[in-house]
Amino acid sequence: MPQSRSIASTEPAGLLADLDACFAEQDSLCRSLEELADSLPERLNTLGAVLLVGRLSALLRRAHHLEETQVFPILASAPVRMHGDLRPILNRLRAEHTENEDYALDLEDTLAEYWARPVARADAERLGYLLRGLFISLRRHVAQDRDWVRPLLRELGAP
Ligand SMILES: [Fe+2]
């Protein structure tokens, strides 16, 4: 039975394939975050939410590490006369990584509070706000990675 590729794989299959695996995992987790937000407040599976956000934080750290240590150095080596100075764009993408990781940690804390205390309307509203803010921001970032980072990486000859 064929198994889906994961960035945790140790088999060398190429940077583009690893990147695609990251995108697919982030897409899937964004769908789950959206379902979670839609389930508030009555149908929320709090333990499932805590586990999901824990997976998300781990995935973001792995995906960002891959991009920042393997992808960005290749992009930074692109000839300036052909592509312009890419450093400001790469710095912005790094900043977005940090923001999304911080957002995920904030969400973890809020979920822990939500779990520990009786459900209050204000908790559900804050949680819904954080969930939507995270998956919207993450989808926007992944779209940029797909539309700009990946094609340029391919153009520059990444495996
Ligand atoms: Fe990224």
Automatic annotation (TrEMBL):
Domain of life: Bacteria
Domain Hemerythrin-like per the UniProt entry, residue ranges: 27-152
Pfam family, one: Hemerythrin
InterPro entries: Hemerythrin-like
Protein name per the record: Hemerythrin domain-containing protein
